[in-house]
Amino acid sequence: MRRRNKVEVVLVSGASSGLGRATAEYLAAHGFRTYAGARSFAQGADAPKGCTPVALDVRDDASVHEAVRYIVEREGHIDALVNCAAFLTFGSCEETSADELQAVLSTNFLGMARMVRAVLPHMRSRKFGRIVNFSSINGLLGIPFQSAYTASKHAIEGWSECLAQEVRRFGVRVTLIEPGDCRNGSRKYRTRACASERKDSPYAAWYRGAVTRVTRDEEGGMPPEQVAAAVAEVLGKKNPPARRLVARPDQRFAVYLHKVIGGYFFYRIMELYYAPGKRR
Ligand SMILES: NC(=O)c1ccc[n+]([C@@H]2O[C@H](COP(=O)([O-])OP(=O)(O)OC[C@H]3O[C@@H](n4cnc5c(N)ncnc54)[C@H](OP(=O)(O)O)[C@@H]3O)[C@@H](O)[C@H]2O)c1
Description:
- The chain is about 45% helix and about 15% strand.
- Strands 3-2-1-4-6-7-9 form a seven-stranded parallel sheet, with helices on both faces. It has a two-stranded parallel ribbon with strand order 5-8.
- The mean pLDDT is about 95.
- It is of the alpha/beta class.
- The protein is built from eight helices and nine strands.
- The longest helix is centred in the middle third of the chain and has 29 residues, at about 100-125.
- The N and C termini lie far apart (about 70 Å).
- Bound molecules: NADP nicotinamide-adenine-dinucleotide phosphate.
- NADP nicotinamide-adenine-dinucleotide phosphate binds next to helix 1 and helix 3.
C-alpha cells in the first residue's frame, strides 16, 4: 500500500523553457516522476531530461483536462502541480491595450486557475495534494512598464491565498514561489505592447531604459536551479510554507522596503532604478 503523504507524481506547466524546464529536470533528477507540460511539446519540442512531455495549453479547458486525464490514467494520481506557464509584456499602463492585458492575464492567471481546478478533484478525493504557484517579486510590488505581468502575479498571490484556506481541510497545501530575476528565461516570452514601441510614445525613453534594465538584471540573475531546488524542497516537506521568496539580497531588501515604507518615497526609488530621467 503506497503512502499517501509523499509526493511522487508531479505535473509542471510551462516546462519547455526557463524556470519551468529547469524545475522539471531538477525534480526528475531527484526522484519525482515528472510530467512536463507545454504547447511546444505538441510540435515535437525536446522534453526536459528525465521527464514525460505532455502537450498542454493552459488557456484551453480541453487541453488542460486531457493532460490531467492522461497522467491520472497512467499513474492513478497526481500528487503535485507546479504552475510555471507565463509570459511578460512590457509596456506603459496607458499604452498596453485591453487585448494585450487580457492575453497576459489569460495565460498567467486564468491558466493557473484552470490548471488548479482540473487537478483539485483528484487531490481532494485522495485527501492529499501539493500546489506550487509561480508568482514573482512582481507579485509583491509593482515595477514600472510591467503592469500586465504585475497584475497577473498579484492576482495569483490573492487567488492562491484564498485557495490555501479552502483546500487545507482536504489535505491539499498551496505554496507561492516568488523568484527574483533568473537567467535562462526565453526572450520569446518577453513581448512588447505595440503602442509603447512607437518612437513618438510619450514614455519612449523611460520605457526603453526599463526594458534594458530588466533584460540586464535577468542576464545577471540567479541560476534557475536555485529556484528549482526551492520547489523540490517545498514538495518534500510535510508542512510546506505558504510562500517562498527566492531572490538576491538586494531584491529581498526591495521587498522589505516596500513593506516598511511603501508609497511615493518607495516609488521614487523604483523610478530611479528602472526608469531614470527628467520629468516632462
Ligand atoms: N525568469 C525570471 O527571471 C522569472 C522571475 C520571476 C518569476 N518568474 C516566473 O517563472 C515562470 C517561468 O518563467 P521563465 O522566464 O523562466 O520562463 P520562459 O522561458 O518565459 O518560458 C515560459 C514557459 O511558459 C510556457 N507557456 C506560455 N504560454 C503557455 C500556454 N498557453 N500553455 C502552456 N504553457 C505556456 C512556454 O511554453 P510553450 O510556448 O511551449 O507553451 C514556456 O515553457 C513564470 O511563471 C514567470 O512568471 C520568472
